[in-house]
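To whoever is covering the structure queue this week,

Two jobs came back overnight. Logging them here so there's a record in the thread.

Job A:
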Amino acid sequence: MVAKEKRIVGIFVDRACPERWIVRDPEGNFWTVPCAENPWDHREPFHPTEDMELEPVPAHYKYVLGIPG
């Protein structure tokens, strides 16, 4: 039997750069999402570094950001 792991979307904020959100998609990829109209449509790849302090944000914000699923 093979167990399938369900990954969830994670939303974070980097206090050093508050004008954007950081999102981890279900595949584990990170994206920057701007504070703009249709933010998910304007996402860009993001590569967090060891020294970044990403703070989790409640999941209900995914609807505000237009994140699918």
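Job B:
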Amino acid sequence: MKISARNSFEGTISKIVRGSVSTEVTLRIGPAMKIVSVITTNSAKRLKLKKGQTAHALIKADSVIIGVD
């Protein structure tokens, strides 16, 4: 797969929380690192996502906001 996004991470789906409209997918990309994404439930069904499956997180953002107390 060739893509233009510079931030691409491969990992294993470790958790899926399905809702009626959206689904939360947790992708383990390292021993202590994970990425959590919320996608439409229709997309999750179309991709046939399941726990333990290898997947890719592609991050393309115009801005990243960081905050501290």
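Note for Job B: The chain has one domain: 7-57.

Please reply-all if you pick these up so we don't duplicate work.
Q.
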